[in-house]
Design goal:
This protein has 314 residues and is mainly α. It is built from 13 helices and eight strands. It has one domain. This is HNH nuclease domain-containing protein.
Length: 314
């Protein structure tokens, strides 16, 4: 019945058409347990008032999941493993500093995707330069900008609460595993080459869980800046994770959500909507002034959200 409702719905009104595109993409890519809740919501919308309520649901999914994931990737993408930088990060990046050090050790001082050794490991003569080296960075799977901060305004706190409620409703496997108070856990951090980290953060590169534990299919969605997996001389289609200490490996449910959201983003025009905003230039200018201050991310995201919502007014 849900498919019948979605497939039979169409609109020449831009805002309604965009909302329907979001709903259809979520229908295609949500996990089974989240899909059950989604279907319940679609049926409730159809019963209550049809297109009007379906548009509201589409806008909710857009603003509570897709836009936060995309806009937060425009902020500081990661923290490089460099000792002088680690000693001077702002107070908001203390959690990143800790995870940068611990996840780097867990991942064997290598990019988990390419296997490149962290360049500082070689420069410090802790490992011989017998394999390719690269600048590596810690990358949060679910965006660090969704972390709870004591400095958050009431508006930011309420918005984050709504976002996490939505994440847990449509990706139930994450409920009880992660929220704004536990975003810095090792299971939510990967060590990646700098350029790979950027592609992952922009949702142009994702890792789809395979049936075998800790194995992932490499999924490229759109143009990537890193050149991987194509410039290595062979096609890198799989990533295998392994731990070099007692820390948890990146959680497959977190990576699964990232992959699904990346798929949805690639199938809607919301990326063009976001990237065409003047707010992005303002965001980049502010990040240039304070590249490691995570406190700027969420207020700017909310500003972009407010402006984008003007196009979806009922």
């Amino acid at each position: 019945q849900c498919d019948v409702i979605l497939n039979s719905s169409s609109s020449d009104i831009s805002a309604e058409a965009k909302a329907l595109a979001v709903l259809k993409a979520f229908r295609e890519h949500l996990p089974e347990d989240g899909l059950e809740n989604f279907i319940d919501d679609i049926l409730a919308c159809a019963k209550s008032g049809g297109m009007l309520y379906m548009q509201q649901l589409g806008v909710h999914l857009l603003t509570a999941i897709l836009i936060p994931f995309k806009l937060l990737s425009l902020g500081p993408p990661s923290l490089q493993h460099r000792h002088d930088l680690l000693g001077s990060v702002s107070k908001y990046a203390n959690g990143i500093k800790h995870q940068s050090e611990t996840s780097l050790a867990r991942d064997g001082h290598r990019c988990v995707y390419t296997g490149n050794i962290d360049i500082h490991r070689v420069q410090d003569e802790l490992e011989p330069e017998t394999e390719p080296v690269a600048y590596t960075a810690s990358r949060h799977v679910l965006p660090y900008g969704l972390k709870d901060h004591t400095e958050d305004t009431p508006r930011e706190t309420e918005a984050k609460r709504a976002i996490w409620w939505s994440i847990h409703r449509y990706f139930p496997a994450l409920a009880g595993k992660i929220d704004g108070s536990s975003i810095d856990q090792p299971a939510n951090v990967l060590t990646l080459n700098g350029s790979v980290s950027s592609d992952f953060g922009e949702c142009h590169l994702a890792f789809k869980p395979l049936p075998t534990e800790n194995e992932y299919e490499v999924v490229v969605l759109g143009r990537i800046s890193s050149g991987y997996p194509f410039n290595t001389g062979y096609l890198m289609t799989k990533m295998v994770l392994s731990a070099h200490n007692a820390l948890e490996l990146p959680d497959r449910d977190f990576l699964d959500m990232h992959h699904r959201v990346a798929r949805i983003l690639s199938e809607t025009d919301i990326v063009e909507e976001i990237e065409s905003r003047r707010d992005r230039r303002d965001t980049e200018n502010l990040y240039a002034r304070s590249p490691t201050d995570g406190a700027h991310i969420f207020p700017l995201m909310l500003t972009c959200l407010s402006n984008l919502l003007k196009d979806f007014r009922l």
